[in-house]
Amino acid sequence: MRNHVHERIPIHSRAIQYESYLRMDGHWDIEGTLIDSKSYDQFLLEKGPLRAGSPIHHMLVRLCIDDEFIIHEIFAEMPATPFSACQPARDPVQGLVGAKLGKGWRKRIDECMGGESGCTHLRELLSGMATAAIQTVGRYRAHQRRTAGLPEPVMLHPRQPLGECLGWSFTGEVMKRFRPEFYGWRPEQP
Question: CB atoms < 10 A from the CB of 92, how many?
């Protein structure tokens, strides 16, 4: 049952989409797109009139990663920005080559392209790419093993998403049923 929604008019739209591809060289391309638009005509300080529905921000990022989530290549493009001065903000993404998607990813993005050296919208788009990669690589490799009739590999330590959401809580019903070896698991204390 949904809460009542009052009458309203659309004002702003942000569309973020991620798509993943297995490359023929065995690496993965994770692509992200972010588009911001308004439902009304605008006047941009530098570019002048912008029709309703036209993107004020249009950002594209493509990461090439391996099975260990290490970034081998990165490409960023900004087809629509409010100012031409925004374009150099894509250059700092190259500092992410060699980084690993996973724990500490958002911190790494901020170190590489935080503040005035980067772009808020590119940082936002990049932050979700780790989740897209996790959804892509592990699930597809598991599909390949099942299709080939191979057993699941034995996990000695929990890895994402285990312990990182309510559904995969170490004390939850899902863990108890599907990963009982980690039910009740606690991280080692330093």
Answer: 19
Task: For residue 146, tell me if it sits in a domain.
Answer: no
Q: Are 89 and 82 spatial neighbours (Cβ–Cβ below 8 Å)?
A: no
Do residues 41 and 50 make contact, with C-beta atoms less than 8 angstroms apart?
yes
In a domain, 80, yes or no: yes
Give tens-digit pLDDT for 110-163. Answer: 999 999 989 999 999 999 999 999 999 988 998 999 999 998 888 778 877 788
Task: Enter the pTM of the model.
Answer: 0.85
Residues 171 and 103 in one domain: no
Q: Are 53 and 25 in contact (CB under 8 A)?
A: no
For the chain, how big is the Rg over CA atoms in Å?
21
Count of the separate structural domains present in the chain: 2
The answer to the question of residue 41 being in a domain is yes
Kindly provide the residue ranges of all beta strands, DSSP E only, lying in the chain, ordered along the sequence.
12-22, 28-38, 42-44, 48-50, 55-65, 71-80
The residue among 79, 74, 59, 83 whose CA lies nearest residue 108 is 74
User: Residue 25: helix, strand or coil by DSSP?
Assistant: coil
Instruction: Check if the beta carbon of residue 44 is closer than 8 Å to that of residue 69.
Output: no
